Amino acid sequence: MRPVLPPAVKFDSHGLEHILHQVIWNGRMREELLAQLEEQRACPDIAAATGFSFAALEGELTVAGVFVRVFVEQPGFAVADPAAFCKARAFAFMLRAG
User: Fold this and answer.
1) Is residue 67 part of a domain?
2) Cβ neighbours of residue 70 under 8 Å, at least 6 residues apart?
3) Tell me, what's the pLDDT at 48?
4) How far apart, in whole angstroms, are the C-alpha atoms of residue 7 and residue 26?
5) Domains in the chain, number
6) Which parts of the chain sit beneath pLDDT 50?
7) 90 lies in some domain
8) CA 10, 87, 91, 53: dihedral to nearest 10 degrees?
9) Where does residue 21 rank: exposed (0-12), middle (13-18), buried (19+ CB within 10 A)?
10) How confident is the model at residue 8, as a pLDDT?
11) What separation, in Å, do the N-terminal and C-terminal C-alpha atoms of the chain show?
12) Which of 27, 78, 87, 88 meets the CB 3.0–4.6 Å disulfide criterion with 64?
């Protein structure tokens, strides 16, 4: 499941990094996106664009749109829907245990 970006997050092309429990944006992701956009400009193919995902996020566990690693590292951030997050987290842990 891909995390949904909160509408208040604005990305800056000047090299800023954002690492929040619902948003990860860094230089590696910026490079991947720029490469994808250049590829699309050179050869427009809607099928290739729909299959794009960030390699930089491979292995990141997300539960209810929250990056679990970042949530554990920064527990002070409020989750948008705590009840949904807790239910999804419990379900994810049961799947991994089973």
Assistant:
1) yes
2) 19, 20, 21, 24
3) 66
4) 18
5) 1
6) 1-9
7) yes
8) -10
9) buried
10) 46
11) 20
12) 88
Q: Which conformational region is residue 25 in: left (phi greater than 0), alpha (psi within -120 to 50 degrees), or beta? A: beta
- Residue span of the structural domain in which 44 resides: 18-97
> CB count, 10 Å around CB of 39?
14
Give the per-residue pLDDT at 16.
77
Q: Give the chain's mean pLDDT.
A: 80
Q: Which amino acid is at 8?
A: A
> How many whole angstroms separate alpha carbon 52 and alpha carbon 67?
19
Q: Is residue 31 part of a domain?
A: yes
- Say how far apart CA 45 and CA 43 lie, in whole Å: 6
